[in-house]
Specification:
about 0% strand; single chain
Amino acid sequence: MNLNSFIQFDDVSQRNEALRVTLAITVCMLLGKLLNLTSPVYLALYPTIIMTKSKDYSWSGLAKTFTPTLLAASAALVVSNCFSQHPFIIWTISLLFFDWMRRRATTPAKMGAMLMPTFNWILVIIFAQHTSADITTRIHEILASMVITTVVCKTAVALFPIASKGKPTLFEPKTVTAQQRLIALTLIGIGVGFLLQVEMLSATFCLVPVIAAATQSQANAFRQVVERRFVTQVGGCALAFIFTLLLSGHQTNIGLYALLLGGLVFMLASLMAKADFTLRDLHSDALLATMLPIQLYIGANEMGLERTFLRGWQLAVTLAILFTLYKLFTTNQRQSHLRKD
């Protein structure tokens, strides 16, 4: 694939979408570095999700997107502070929260919307359990990251308008069954319980694909999520590894960092803008999976190559476990049907 494939677009809207995504993510990630935040990762997580998943960029729409996440993180802070010496109680309350979120996810849009609140809840309780970091400061940084993301994304959308794609497809709400709730609680609950007991902070982000897979309503959808996430998550770590090698020795050169980062984001955003509906999620997931390790591990005094590799390995193992569970479940189902016949 040559350079022309990234700079040639079918229409102005595709070009503007790639440019707005590039501008928003690059600026937010640069601010995360320059502001010396304790947790700059939020300025990679939030703009990437907003620019690739959000459909409403109005002030009220963005506030509506961020409010559940802020409330979930704040509630998790209260729970962690009240029961800091009792991880089992924290885990039990977390299960109740996860089940409440899953019961409310009756449409694909609501299933997608539960990702950020659920994951931010997990981040707060895990880091509160295993670090001495001031979690209250972390909540302040979450709020600051949301405000920065909102302003930057609104500016990018205003600078690079795209043609309206019409009203999004509306899906009829479907009641979440007890089995679906049990699957979600089991997968997410086991992951959170393990991380509460074992200090393995680097594996916390492995729960993102676990949440995405656990909320699927059908076995085939579960399999597709796992297979696609293997490509995007592990592939994203590989791209971040290559990016780190290119930047090696020059990580303090903010101009070079911005140039390489903007080029990488533009490449992935261009592929997403030109993709059809079925492949957009693939490219957006790859974009998120690439940006997170870059923002997490590259610092002024370290390149984070080892941690990027470890992240890719942990994600591969996590997804392999999920795929094995899928195979066991479907095999048992087939055997049950054969016995009935």
